[in-house]
Design goal:
This protein has about 325 residues and is of the alpha+beta class. It has 3 domains: about 80 residues, no CATH class; about 150 residues, no CATH class; about 60 residues, Dna Ligase, domain 1 (2-Layer Sandwich). The chain is built from 13 helices and 12 strands. The strands form 2 sheets. Strands 5, 6, 7, 8, 9, 10, 11 and 12 form an 8-stranded antiparallel sheet that branches. Strands 1-4-2-3 form a 4-stranded antiparallel sheet, sandwiched between helices. Strand 11 and strand 12 form a beta hairpin. Helix 1 packs across helix 6. The chain is globular. The protein starts with a helix and ends with a strand.
Length: about 325
Amino acid sequence: MNKIFYILKRIKNMDKKAMIKKINEIHKKTNMPKTSIFLDMQKCARRYGAGYMDYDLFEMYNLTDNQRDTYLTRGRNNELVVKYCDLDYLHFFQNKDEFNSRFQAYLKRDWISVKKSKKQDVIDFINKHPVFMAKPVDGGCGKGIEKINSSKYDSLDKLYEYLISEDNNFELEEVIKQNEKVSKIYPDAINTVRIVTIVTTDDGKSILTIPKDERKNIKLKSHIICAYFRIGNGKKCVDNFNSGGMVAPVDEKNGIVSQFAIDKQKNIYETHPQSGEMIKGFKFPFWNEAIKLCEKASKEIPEMGYVGWDVAFTNERSCVC
């Protein structure tokens, strides 16, 4: 029933012009009749929970039904969210101030909320960290993130005025000093690994199946589902796939990048186009520590049992971003 409601909601909210544009692009690329593409899209939506973006991104028009069935589509992702996540707790992950407060021990760096702090405290932070990251409190996909050098402002008062302006709602973070080997691949952003976890009871059940008043003493188990390397590109200071970055799968057992990278335009990269460094075969330092970090963090709010953790690597350790 949840799947039917999800499909109906997606149909209602669908950008039909964008879907038609995708159909035309696929037709031009494959010579498949447009009607056949549309009908195949609907089949993939019903069977595999694939939206038209999934259909194009995964090139489902080139896949057999058995191959299509191996993909984690947007619809299937939603099913996992429904099964493992109580959205009453989602605000901890949507609001960076709340996330940083709750997961302070995993960040391993300084941060401050601009609008929730006194002016002098913000000024003191900037004096301690003249170059810092400014992130929208409620932003996502790397949008609106700035790397700010305070020396480029006439005064700290002018910089503070910018930070508290009506259009901005920032939290500020100390810049992570990236591991030298990771930085060689792309030095202009902190290139993270997204490690996806699912938390269950010790016998494999979603904690949401347990009454709230019985959850306190339940033994929990964290499962590492997958991991992938997020790499910046184009001189941008973020590594997000939706902001011009690229991704490559990582073997969660050993921390080695197992395939080439791909960007949203489906360009394949054996080496990084700016640094020339090899991507496939790269081995992350402190990998076992990173896995343990995510396993521990995932149990902090077990009601959000399906989470992707962005992990950065320094020369000394790993930390959650």
